[in-house]
Amino acid sequence: MHSSPLLLEEPIRMASILEPSKPTFFPAMTKIVGTLGPKSRSVDIISHCLDAGMSVARFDFSWGDPEYHQETLENLRVAIKSTKKLCAVMLDTVGPELQIENKTDHPITLEADTLVVLTPDQNKEASSNLLPLNFTGLSKAVKKGDTIFIGKYLFTGSETASVWLEVSEVEGEDVTCLVKNTATLSGSLFTVHVSQIHIDLPTLADKDKEVISTWGVQNNIDFLSLYTRHVEDIRHAREFLSKLGDLKQTHIYAKIENIEGMKHFDEILREADGIILARGNLGIELPPEKVFLFQKAAIYKCNMVGKPVVVTRVVDSMTDNLRPTRAEATDVANAVLDGSDAILLGAETLRGQYPVETISIVGKICAEAEKVHNQDLYFKKAVKYVGEPMSHLESIASSAVRAAIKVKASVIICFTSSGRAARLIAKYRPTMPVISVVIPQLKTNQLRWTFTGAFEARQSLIVRGLFPMLADPRHPAESRSGTNESILKVALDHGKAFGIIKPHDRVVVCQKVADSSVVKILELED
């Protein structure tokens, strides 16, 4: 039977904090997105990442060629089969990212109080006093006194791995900068970030479009992570995807990482399928004391409209260390308490020394934070935000969650075709898992018949508390008789196999019966 949750607002026995956490099949309700790369692309490592709790694999195309990523994806598929753990695929586009290529591959050391020139002439070799940039318009975008950051991958805040520059002179297409801190830049590619400046480059570059229309189409990507500054960025991307066959079903997640994206957040949220708070660049754009305010406000807005929100850059130090810092551990927990659906790990799993351990530790922190999440207060806020009269589906979803909590159900089972009903239930943050039974639909384009459902099932893997299973297409999502015993039995057996349903447990079932939506409570026998 489901245990009563602890609340931070209530006294907690200190001894209970020391009690070891019980292992479960689902490490946490909060999902983990892992970026696959050099340190995490073998079948063995990916299998361990899936077992540790990774449910979405991110492929970052700001580095590596499609063939490299394809090999990694093939390894992921082998790992999925061997572990029997579902995993969705996210393609992360480069977008209007400024980069410096270090063709020498030797580390470049920049000394504080010296000058360095940023030039668009990429034929020149990178050195400690000259850095070639992939953008010709920098001299027109900046002025004396502006701030520019350069680092590997993204900015960790480590003053020895990223450099802070101040523009001192603009001459022709070259920009001369004063180096503000001593740093050594290593690797072949450095990311450049110009604080609070509009970069006149397209959101979907030609390279991005080529990758999406070849690699993306070939692999039926579930999510597209899109650098987003305006709502039109989402609309253009959706129009582009609509012409690429099955990719019209791909969900677009808006990466908010600068002031432009923040200013247009509300309209972006209305158009996007989900939001990624890219805190690496946001931490540079915003004063440090304002970062948490934007995080809390953005997550709240996403929660209230029922759209998944993903938080990045939480355990940077685990790129090189086996344990997170105290601040990082607390940051993960606060992201969960704020309402995040998922935590995205970038460098920590891409090139970090401990990808599996990182996923495992983040999952454990998330699980502990979920135990003290005030669901009752959250539920009241969500219901109040929706207002009255509620839509039919919203009313059913909120009622299913309330009933499950009142009877202390161990799980909610939701039958769905599109996944929308299950996502609405998850929106109300039930304290128990939601098994989303996705019923495939038979569709035709006049040339061939196909089943839908795989996309919908995998796209649930980024939503907090939602655990999908793809049903046999011979069983309809809508029942005419009031029961759908065979498919319900499969779902119950699924829950029992994972250890989340036990004898004498209560289970709440949400399904359509004829033209009506029904919420029913089952009490299981032995």
Secondary-structure blueprint:
Layout: H1 14-18, E1 31-35, H2 43-52, E2 54-60, H3 66-83, E3 88-92, E4 98-101, E5 108-110, E6 115-119, E7 130-132, H4 138-141, E8 147-152, E9 162-171, E10 174-179, E11 183-185, E12 189-194, H5 206-218, E13 223-227, H6 231-242, E14 251-256, H7 259-263, H8 265-271, E15 274-277, H9 279-285, H10 288-305, E16 309-312, H11 326-338, E17 342-345, H12 347-350, H13 355-371, H14 375-386, H15 392-406, E18 411-416, H16 420-427, E19 434-438, E20 441-444, E21 449-452, H17 454-458, E22 466-470, E23 478-479, H18 485-497, E24 506-513, E25 516-523
Parallel strand pairs: 1-2, 1-17, 2-3, 3-13, 6-7, 13-14, 14-15, 15-16, 16-17, 18-19, 18-24, 19-22, 23-24
Antiparallel strand pairs: 4-12, 5-11, 6-10, 8-9, 8-12, 9-10, 20-21, 24-25
Helix pairs in contact: 2-3, 2-13, 6-8, 11-13, 15-16
General description of the model:
The structure is a single chain. The protein is α/β, with parallel strands linked by helices. It has three domains: 24-94 and 201-369, Alpha-Beta Barrel (TIM Barrel); 96-192, PK beta-barrel domain-like (M1 Pyruvate Kinase, Domain 3, Beta Barrel), CATH 2.40.33; 373-522, Pyruvate kinase, C-terminal domain (Pyruvate Kinase, Chain: A, domain 1). Helix content is 35%, strand content 24%. The chain contains 18 helices and 25 strands. An eight-stranded parallel β-barrel has the order 1-2-3-13-14-15-16-17, surrounded by seven helices. Strands 4-12-8-9-10-6-7 form a seven-stranded mixed beta sheet, with no helix packed on it. α2 (43-52) packs across α3 and α2 packs parallel to α13. The protein is globular. The chain starts with 13 loop residues before the first helix and ends with a strand. Residues 479-483 have low confidence and may be disordered.
